[in-house]
Every structure is written in structure tokens, then in C-alpha cells.
Specification:
By secondary structure, the chain is of the alpha/beta class. It has a 17-stranded mixed beta sheet that branches. The protein has helices at residues 5-9, 19-31, 47-51, 104-110, 113-117, 124-132, 358-365, 371-387, 394-399; strands at 57-58, 79-83, 99-101, 137-141, 148-154, 158-168, 173-182, 187-196, 201-224, 229-250, 256-265, 270-279, 285-294, 299-308, 316-325, 331-340, 346-354. The model has no long low-confidence stretch (mean pLDDT 92).
């Protein structure tokens, strides 16, 4: 299958800062074949749900952000920005000291650099975002700055493309929370680039909340310089079709990364997490745990790739995929991919697929706790390890400390 030509020709004419990028993306989409299940990266994907994105309208000035009234208050001293693919997220906003807008030649030089370093610039979802994004939020971070909360909204059967670039300077520190929200069978196409300078730190949370019938395509590209630390905590729930693809590259070694994720699926939802971490220098570290809960007839996918070429001696990486099935009709696919050439490394990986443990349920019931309450307690403990890691108290503020899991609220 090729891209629907009619859909491409109906797009607004390329314009603005991203005009060259839009042209590149549209040309690539017209030349690339639509993803096929013969491609390993798409082998398990329900492509009919991907095709359905082309029935949506692009976000325009009619985008609705009236749901802001129901959002929790932003933490004191934190900066909240709202991005919906059409409105300027910085309109009427005074940026605090240490955060500045990236423009002109600096933006042109930085845009796409990290995508190339992560070897994902030509991936189909990235080219889709290239083709349809009409604006970019590009910020430079210097020193220790106030936390930033970026709320991205979609509604009314619209495809909302968003693109963000963060240049985090040497020894800078940033606490960054993204809240991706959708309703009304809308869809997000999101692309994020983060460049971490030497000895910088970024604590990044991604809370993605659908309403059961929405779609999410999110690509994150992260480039780390020496002695930088990057932490990603992602929590997703309620997406009829979702695909989260974080790619991290440590360019000179001696950097550290931690990736913790939780995806919850129910009904007939399908959500996939594809992570890629590449070490290009010595003494890099990775601590990764990806959890899933699959209920009803849903399908959860995890693919974790780790590359350790010869220069990456003394790499220390661990990856664990933990999966919980709440229904005999639910499905989980988990696959690690380790490509190790260096000979002095420590890389571990593991994957488990299980159900709620009968002995644990029996222990709780023996103390007078009902079956449903016991199951809720066990699920709460399973989720808590990830939820508590979200920055800016996101779990309490946005979720009330709990998720809806298989009809329960742990």
C-alpha cells in the first residue's frame, strides 16, 4: 500500500519555519510504501488502525482546549505550556530565567540533529510528523530552571501534530512532564528531540491518557553527552491504537539513562512500546523496566533494542520486561534485541508474563480481604513502582494516584 495521494494533496501548502521539513516529509511519504507487516518493526501492528488516521482532519484554529478548566493546578513555580498543533504555546507566556526560545540559524542547525544521531530520522512515523507539523516549540535550557509541564491535547476526530526540541546546556537541570490527552477519537503525532550537554540532567515524565478510541504515535529522540543523566518515566492508558518509540544514544560514553514504563490496555486496544538505546562510548549505563497490564481482548507489545558496539567497553545495561495478563483473551508480545560487539560489558535482560499470583490472593483473602479488593491491592503495588516515579507529582495530580485497570481502580 502507498500513501493516499488525495490525503497528501489536501494538506495545507508548506509554509513557515518548518517549510523545508514539511516538503521533505511529504516527499518521503509519497515515495515510501505504507508500513507492512512484513517489516519486523510493524509485524505485530494492526495496520487498519494506522490507516484510519488518514480519515481525520488536521488540527486547525478550531482546536478545542476548553478542557483546561478540568486540569489540576500546576505546581508552584512550574511553567505550564499548552500545545495543540495550531496555537502558539508561548503566546502570552513569560519564560523564566534560564529558558529561552531557539530561533533562526541556531534552530536550523539543531533541528533534526538528534533524530539523525538516533538513526530514526527516516522512520515512517517521523516522516509523517515532518509532513504535517506546522510549528515547533524549541527551547534552550541553561542552569537549573523551574519545572516545565507541557500539556498536549487532541479532540473532535482531529490529527494533532506536535514537535518539540529541547537543547539542555552543560550542567543544566530540567524536570519535564508531558501530559498527552485525547478524546473524541482524535489522534496525536508527536515528535520530541532532547539534546543533553555534558553533566546535565533531565527528569522526563510522559503521561499519555486516551479515552478508549484514540490513537497515539509518539517518537522521542534523546542524545546524551558525557556524564549526563536522562530519566524517562512513561505511563499510558486508554489508546485504541498506540505506538511509543523512545530512542536514546550516548555519544561519548560515561553517561547514564533510566527508562521506566507502564502501559495499560483494555477492551480491544493495542499499544506498542519500541525502545532503542545505543552506546557509542565507554562506561555508559542503562536501567530499564517496562511493565504492561493487558485486560479483556487487548494486545500489548514491547520491543527493546540495545546496541553495544566495540567502542562501548565497560557498558553496564539491564533491561526487564514484566507483563501481567488479566484475561485469557488478552495478548502480550515482548522481545529484547541485544546487539553486543564490545567484549568487556555487562548486559542483562529478562521478560516475564504472568497472571495475578494465586498464593498472594489467597494470603490476602485469608485475612478477610475480598477477592476483588485483594486483586486491587496487588495491581496497585504493581503500578506504584512506576507511577511514583513520574515527576511533578503527576500521579497524584492527574490520576489521583490510581489508574483504571480492567474495571478496577488500584
Amino acid at each position: 500500500m502507498v500513501m493516499p495521494e488525495g490525503w497528501l494533496t489536501q494538506l495545507p501548502a508548506p509554509a513557515g519555519t518548518l517549510e523545508p521539513v514539511q516538503r521533505r516529509g511529504r516527499l518521503a511519504l509519497s515515495e515510501q510504501r505504507f508500513p507492512s507487516r512484513r517489516q519486523e518493526a510493524w509485524r505485530l501492528t494492526d495496520l487498519t488502525r494506522l490507516e484510519a488516521l488518514f480519515q481525520l482532519s488536521l488540527a486547525d484554529q478550531r482546536s478545542d482546549s476548553s478542557s483546561a478548566d478540568s486540569w489540576p493546578p500546576v505546581p508552584e513555580q512550574a511553567l505550564r505550556l499548552v500545545i495543540d498543533g495550531s496555537q502558539d504555546p508561548l503566546q502570552g507566556v513569560a519564560l523564566p530565567e534560564g529558558i529561552s526560545l531557539l530561533e533562526g540559524a541556531e534552530l536550523e542547525q539543531a533541528l533534526g540533529h538528534t533524530l539523525s544521531r538516533c538513526h530514526c530520522a527516516s522512520d515512517w512515523p517521523v516522516e509523517l510528523n515532518h509532513g504535517v507539523s506546522q510549528q515547533i516549540l524549541a527551547l534552550r535550557i541553561r542552569g537549573k530552571v523551574p519545572p516545565v509541564e507541557l500539556v498536549m491535547v487532541a479532540s473532535d476526530a482531529m490529527l494533532v501534530p506536535t514537535r518539540v526540541l529541547l537543547l539542555v546546556g552543560e550542567k543544566a537541570e530540567l524536570e519535564f512532564l508531558q501530559v498527552v490527552s485525547a478524546k473524541g477519537q482524535a489522534a496525536h503525532s508527536h515528535l520530541l528531540e532532547i539534546h543533553l550537554g555534558q553533566e546535565s540532567k533531565v527528569n522526563h515524565g510522559l503521561l499519555a491518557l486516551g479515552d478508549g478510541g484514540e490513537s497515539l504515535l509518539a517518537n522521542l529522540a534523546v542524545e546524551q553527552e558525557t556524564r549526563s543523566h536522562y530519566s524517562l518515566v512513561s505511563v499510558s492508558q486508554g489508546w485504541s491504537f498506540g505506538r511509543l518509540e523512545p530512542s536514546v544514544v550516548q555519544v561519548d560514553g560515561q553517561a547514564s539513562a533510566s527508562i521506566h514504563g507502564l502501559s495499560v490496555t483494555a477492551a480491544d486496544e493495542q499499544f506498542a512500546v519500541h525502545t532503542a538505546v545505543r552506546f557509542e562510548g565507554p562506561e555508559g549505563t542503562l536501567d530499564q523496566v517496562q511493565k504492561t497490564i493487558a485486560a479483556d481482548r487487548s494486545h500489548s507489545i514491547f520491543n527493546g533494542a540495545i546496541q553495544v558496539p566495540r567502542p562501548a567497553q565497560r557498558t553496564n545495561a539491564s533491561q526487564l520486561s514484566r507483563n501481567l495478563l488479566l484475561s485469557g483473551r488478552a495478548r502480550v508480545d515482548a522481545k529484547p534485541e541485544l546487539e553486543i560487539v564490545a567484549d568487556d560489558v555487562r548486559c542483562t535482560h529478562g521478560a516475564t508474563v504472568s497472571q495475578l499470583q494465586e498464593d498472594q490472593l489467597f494470603y490476602l483473602r485469608s485475612r478477610g480481604i475480598t477477592q476483588s479488593s485483594a486483586a486491587t491491592l496487588l495491581l496497585r503495588g504493581y503500578c506504584k513502582e512506576v507511577l511514583d516515579r513520574l515527576p511533578l507529582s503527576a500521579s497524584q495530580r492527574w490520576l489521583g494516584g490510581s489508574l483504571q485497570v480492567g474495571g478496577m481502580t488500584p
